[in-house]
Amino acid sequence: MKNLEILAVDNAAYQNILTRTSIRNFKDQEVPEDLKSALLHAGMSAPSGVNKQPWEFILIDDHEILKRLSESLPYAKMTAQAPIAIVVCGNSERFLDGDDSTLWVQDLSAASENILLAAHAFGLGAVWTCLYPHQDRMKYVCEILNIPENMIPFNLIPIGYPSKVHTPIDKWHPDRVHLNKF
Ligand SMILES: Cc1cc2nc3c(=O)[nH]c(=O)nc-3n(C[C@H](O)[C@H](O)[C@H](O)COP(=O)(O)O)c2cc1C
């Protein structure tokens, strides 16, 4: 599309979105307590269908538990290095019915992205690692974290100070934008 161009908008929130990358290497440095609750607050500030807020969050700061999780989850090995991780869970008692019964996935995705963006804004790094819908991964995490049956572990987000500098990749594709009709 010709009439859409990248604008160098000087806005901190916008630049934070554009420069976030997945971080999988962490320094041996603690995350301050106020930032831990700020990350969770960011997650809880997400939009959700019918404002159901169908999420629960497990904050993990115990190194032994982080290590056990990393040993069970091949795509989340970096968890062993991270000072903290957040497991975003869906509370099935707050899921909607009928055609809206899977909206919780979108709600939890919005909450997860808020956590990633808040982490980046605080100079932390984070990566979304996939649990749902992989039954084997969900089972391990439920066992390790004692998650009750009515909760669905959705993803695991290891968080810490990045040990390497990451250059964000520009994902702007004007050819994927369609004006007024496809
Ligand atoms: C639904 C979803 C599942 C993902 N699962 C994993 C995962 O299991 N392990 C991992 O290292 N990264 C995972 N990622 C991170 C992606 O690999 C990453 O977002 C993608 O490569 C783009 O890179 P960026 O986040 O740096 O922009 C996942 C991301 C999403 C949104």
Describe this structure in words.
This protein has 182 residues and is an alpha+beta fold. It has one domain: NADH Oxidase. Helix content is 33%, strand content 15%. Strands 1, 2, 3, 4 and 5 form a five-stranded antiparallel β-sheet that branches. The chain is globular, with a radius of gyration of 18 Å. The termini are close together. The mean pLDDT is 96. Flavin mononucleotide binds next to strand 4.
Overview in brief:
With 182 residues, the chain is α+β, with helices and mostly antiparallel strands. The protein has a single domain (23-163), classed as 3-Layer(aba) Sandwich (NADH Oxidase), CATH 3.40.109. The chain has helices spanning 12-19, 33-44, 63-72, 103-121, 135-145, and strands at 55-60, 84-91, 125-126, 129-130, 151-160.
Shape category: globular
Query: How many distinct domains?
Result: 1
Q: How many individual helices?
A: 5
**Alpha carbon gyration radius:** 18 Å
Kindly report the name of the CATH homologous superfamily. Answer: NADH Oxidase
End-to-end distance: 12 Å
Low-confidence stretches: none
Q: Which small-molecule species are bound to the chains here?
A: flavin mononucleotide
Count of strand segments: 5
Q: What's the helical proportion of residues?
A: 25-40%
* SSE topology string: HHEHEHEEHE
CATH topology tier name: NADH Oxidase
Largest sheet: 5 strands, antiparallel
Summed over residues and divided by their number, the pLDDT gives a mean of 96
